[in-house]
Amino acid sequence: MLAVGLSLLAGLGFASTSIFARVGMQGVKPLPATFISVVVSFLPAILLALLFALPDIRALPPVAYLWLLGLGALNFLGGRTQIFLAINLVGAARSSVIGGASVVFSIIFAVTLAGERLHGMLLVGIVAVVIGLVLATKESVQEGWSRDRKSLLGYLLALGAAASYGGANVMAKHLTLVYGSPLVITAFSLLFGILLLAPFAGTQAVQSLKTAGGDLKFAGFASLSGLASAVAIISLYYALQRADVVLVSPITSTNPLMTIFMARMFLSQMEKVTWQVVAGACLAVLGIVLVVFGSTL
To answer: Is 126 part of any domain?
Structure first.
């Protein structure tokens, strides 16, 4: 049950990341906002790793750094960069909806590459989660599509982020089992994410901070998105260390529902909570119950 709780915490963290990023990008462009977010995520992760997992850091073999480089590329150059661009184009709620498809990619990769198995109850639960997400967000996606055909780019970027996150989940599961502490995996994948993003966004981030002068409101929200993401990633990797991807991903991928409700509470101009949202949320919760129950069979 600890894995379930950590998965829910990860979902809440990712939802908070989207909301903070949406506000931050009103004053900071997507790429520098992404870079600021990744840097801020790295700081608590490396501190915790040095305090609680120093032996695991020292034990890392050279080949581990290549795996961590790949994880950093998938998670931050592929995942976070694309989702921040999508949030800027179509908003936090809509981009999170499409990003929720990461559960599908995670399961495909887990079954085909990692050899995990799907029980019947797990499959039914996963289908229920996906249908619930679609039902809860269908109206908002249709509204965005009808207003602006260019939003297709935002949806495609969100789908690309979902595929990146799906692959990253499977890779992170493997790395936590082979190399130990999720804190180490988080910290070093973030470090490589910073190094990969720096040529594209580092200079822009510094310029954005200089331009802001004393008014760091929007950069502050980008930083908060980084802190929320750090909590989400660490929770997710600890959950993956304790349970299969096919259990963790469906639970974590309910974060679009959390994003919609948070957008309604704090960014009410973006989304409306309709009966479709409530029905979809109920179906997704039912799916989670089935996934958890199926994992015990």
So the answer is: no
Look at residues 228, 101, 121 and name the one whose alpha carbon lies nearest to residue 169.
101
Amino acid symbol at 90? V
Q: What is the mean pLDDT of residues 250-271?
A: 78
Q: What is the mean pLDDT of residues 279-297?
A: 66
Inform me whether the pLDDT recorded for 185 exceeds 60: yes
Instruction: Using a pLDDT cut of 90, give the percent of the chain over it.
Output: 49
Q: Which residues contact 240 (CB under 8 A, 6 or more apart)?
A: 169, 172, 173, 176, 182, 248
What is the rounded distance in angstroms from the CA atom of residue 294 to the CA atom of residue 17? 30
pLDDT value of residue 3 = 87
Residue 271's pLDDT is what?
A: 57
* Percent of the chain as helix, strand, coil, to the nearest 5: 85, 0, 15
| Amino acid identity, position 105 | F
Could you give the CA distance from residue 70 to residue 78 in angstroms, rounded to a whole number?
A: 10
Whole-number Å distance between alpha carbons of 193 and 150: 29
Domain that holds residue 189: 2-116+149-265
The span from the CA of 281 to the CA of 101, in Å, is 16
Inter-residue contact 254 to 283 (CB < 8 Å) = no
Give the Cα separation of 129 and 127 in Å (integer): 5
Mean pLDDT of 144-172: 82
Which helix (H) or strand (E) element contains residue 73? Answer: none
Does residue 175 fall inside a structural domain? yes
Sequential DSSP letters for 31-58 = HHHHHHHHHHHHHHHHHHHHHH-HHHHH
So what's the pLDDT on residue 13? 96
Report if residue 171 sits inside a domain: yes
Collapse the DSSP code of 267 into the 3-class scheme (helix H, G, I; strand E, B; otherwise coil) and give the result: coil
How many domains does the chain divide into?
1
Where does the chain show beta strands of DSSP type E? none
Mean pLDDT of the chain: 85
